[in-house]
Amino acid sequence: MSRRRRIYEGKAKILYEGPEPGTLIQFFKDDATAFNAKKHEIIEGKGVLNNRISEHIFTSLNRIGIPTHFIKRMNMREQLIREVEIIPLEIVVRNVAAGSLSKRLGIPEGEILPRSVIEFYYKKDELDDPMVSEEHITAFGWASPPEIDDMMSMAVRINDFLSGLFLGVGIQLVDFKIEMGRLWENDMMRIILADEISPDSCRLWDINTQEKMDKDRFRRDMGGMLEAYREVAKRLGIMNENEPVRSKGPRLVSSKDD
Ligand code: UDP
């Protein structure tokens, strides 16, 4: 096991102390959970795929000027990230009706929304992450009005960029969840994108077949979750089809005697 100090363990990731102050190591586990961890399984290799997919997305976002916590990928399951103060909100952006929005408002799954919609949820497992309004966020001091403006404009840019990225590989970005954090540099503070963006936190549908390529396969007992995640990675051109995602230990890839 690791000799590093564990800072935090969540449902799908572990955060360890980083090599330098202000950095952390984010480890992607194979655990799949849904309904606030009431449903739980190990999907061997999921962590490896999410590490790669999230790396690809965060690197691309960094390139277009959206600040993120991502510094570099270290190995199959770990990335070096900047330590931030996580804002206790889940920001959900939706383009197409699905999941809780369909249930709450009675809009059939698959209906294109008249415009993209941003929602906030309060990160509190004991309460099942309730939806909150900007009024709640400012009244309870989770974020200030300018911070909310910042988060919303970043969320819109991320949505536009990701919608195009996925559309280019035949995938419809239905909705996704992001988290943001505060980063202090000297006396200045700015909000940057944190956590991960992967098929665990997005709804991704094949453009032609409408097939689900995301965590709904697990939530709805459809099977084929790992295959779907691997297909997302393959379409994004970030993983060799034959690259193993299941191997846990070191593997001999070549030898001088070959
Ligand atoms: N989501 C997430 N973590 C959560 C809740 C939602 O990553 O704790 C993502 C989910 O994968 C989907 C989007 O946020 O892409 C919207 O989810 P929704 O509110 O429809 O909730 P669900 O149907 O998953 O309960």
Summarize the SSE layout with pairings.
Layout (H helix, E strand, L loop, with lengths): L5 E4 L3 E5 L5 E6 L2 E4 L4 E4 L3 H18 L6 E4 L4 E5 L2 E2 L2 E8 L2 H7 L6 E11 L8 E2 L1 H6 L5 H23 L3 E15 L2 E7 L7 E5 L9 H4 L5 H11 L23
Antiparallel strand pairs: 1-2, 2-3, 3-7, 4-5, 6-7, 8-12, 9-10, 9-12, 10-11, 12-13, 12-14
Helix pairs in contact: 1-6
The structure holds uridine-5'-diphosphate.
Bound molecules: uridine-5'-diphosphate
Largest β-sheet summary? 7 strands, antiparallel
CATH topology of the largest domain: D-amino Acid Aminotransferase, Chain A, domain 1
Q: What does the overall shape look like?
A: globular
Q: Would you count the extended β strands for me?
A: 14
Q: C-alpha Rg, in Å? A: 18 Å
Helix/sheet category: alpha+beta
Order of helices and strands: EEEEEHEEEEHEEHHEEEHH
- Overall mean confidence score, pLDDT: 94
CATH superfamily of the largest domain: ATP-grasp fold, B domain
N-end to C-end Cα span:
32 Å
Count of discrete domains: 2
As a percent range, the share of helical residues equals: 25-40%
- The number of helices is 6
Low-confidence stretches: none
CATH architecture of the largest domain, please? 2-Layer Sandwich
Strand-residue proportion: 25-35%
- The top-level CATH class of the largest domain is Alpha Beta
